[in-house]
Specification:
single chain; alpha+beta; two-stranded antiparallel ribbon; 16 helices
Length: about 375
């Protein structure tokens, strides 16, 4: 999108994902992955011999055997499902269709820039490959919930099909808890997060008539603020209106606390030793950058460190500096990997070189 190309993204939904996994095939895949035989046998025993029944108003049905699937709500469930669908996109890669597919448990999405009918055909072939995989491995897609999102100006709005069924289009989609829209702006996510936080704040207001600063602040931090900060590095707002939507929730919470001397929002934050949400998002950004670089998992995200790129700018100087990336559009300019670079480079070298996350956060607080 930043290059001015339209992009089509597909969001897929497996039908009864966890319940349909064939256990014998799962065992074969675990063995092929190199899991130790004893571990495979233990998991196989854990999966077999399960029964289920229906209980309605105290009336219980007869139990029946559960012959397939992995239990939902368990620690191993998502991991076993991920093992089973791990080779979902193998055929796509083998055919070199240039379609990126990413998975998280039973959430699957993929996309491709579509500047021609040839690109559209490749994306359609990728969807066909996914359908073939599902048919071969005893799985199926819930086609009514599989959607296409057309992103970018002048998008040709191509149609796509799975097993002969035309896929519906969507203007916004929940992507692992974050609301993504066609324009890639976080406004909808900010509004939704603020709405949920306000709802919980209203419940606290109705149930706590005397709001002691220590108790109510703990309640706010535990039950309200997480809604405002969930995965914020992925959607941190840049428009002042979106920032204000979030900040007003914390401002309202502080107004509900009894006995504060400050009159303005900033004075109340200082009195309680509380940072604004915007300041906290900045700190979370820096902590995540440090984690990526320390664990060496973000070199592709940041296009290697400045030292490796031989950057000669003063700001990117130093062993832990990052190369500045340039962007044409706001969604790219304010995306995590771009917006964080200059703030990171301004940090003292002794902070950036922290050995672990805790040390980094402690040093960051002292700045």
């Amino acid at each position: 999108m930043d290059d001015g190309k339209p992009v089509d993204i597909f969001y897929l939904d497996f039908a009864k994902a966890f319940d349909k996994v064939p256990r014998k095939r799962l065992v074969k895949k675990m063995t092929a992955k190199g899991l130790e035989p004893a571990v495979v046998r233990w998991i196989e025993n854990w999966l077999t011999g399960r029964t289920q029944h229906v209980n309605i108003q105290g009336e219980k049905s007869e139990s029946c055997d559960v012959d397939s699937g992995v239990p939902q709500g368990t620690v191993l469930g998502p991991t076993l499902f991920s093992i089973y669908i791990d080779d979902l996109e193998v055929t796509i890669e083998a055919r070199k269709l240039d379609v990126k597919v990413v998975k998280f448990a039973d959430d699957t999405k993929g996309g491709k820039a579509v500047t021609s009918t040839e690109d559209r055909d490749k994306l359609q072939q990728a969807l066909d490959c996914l359908c073939e995989w599902a048919d071969s491995w005893g799985m199926s897609f819930n086609l009514s919930k599989c959607k296409i999102m057309h992103v970018g100006l002048h998008n040709p709005q191509y149609e796509y099909f799975m097993n002969g069924t035309k896929l519906g289009t969507t203007e916004e989609e929940r992507d692992i808890g974050v609301l993504v829209t066609q324009n890639l702006k976080p406004s909808a996510q900010c509004s939704q997060a603020a709405g949920r936080a306000m709802s919980v704040l209203g419940q606290l207001r109705r149930n706590f008539h005397y709001r002691d600063r220590h108790i109510f602040l703990k309640l706010y931090k535990q039950y309200v603020r997480p809604y405002l900060e969930f995965s914020s590095p992925a959607w941190s707002p840049w428009l002042q209106g979106d920032k204000d939507v979030l900040e007003k929730v914390q401002e309202k919470a502080l107004k509900m606390i009894s006995g504060l001397k400050g009159t303005t929002y900033e004075e109340k934050c200082a009195e309680l030793g509380l940072k604004t949400l915007e300041e906290r998002r900045g700190g979370q950004d820096m902590a995540l950058v440090h984690k990526f670089l320390t664990e060496q998992t973000g070199t592709d995200l940041f296009r290697l460190t400045a030292a490796q790129n031989r950057a000669r700018t003063r700001q990117a100087a130093g062993e832990h500096g990052l190369s500045v990336q340039y962007a044409r559009t706001d969604p790219r300019k304010y995306s995590f990997a771009v917006r964080t670079v200059e703030d990171w480079n301004r940090l003292p070298e002794e902070v950036k070189s922290s050995r672990n996350g805790e040390e980094f956060r402690n040093k960051l607080k002292k700045l």
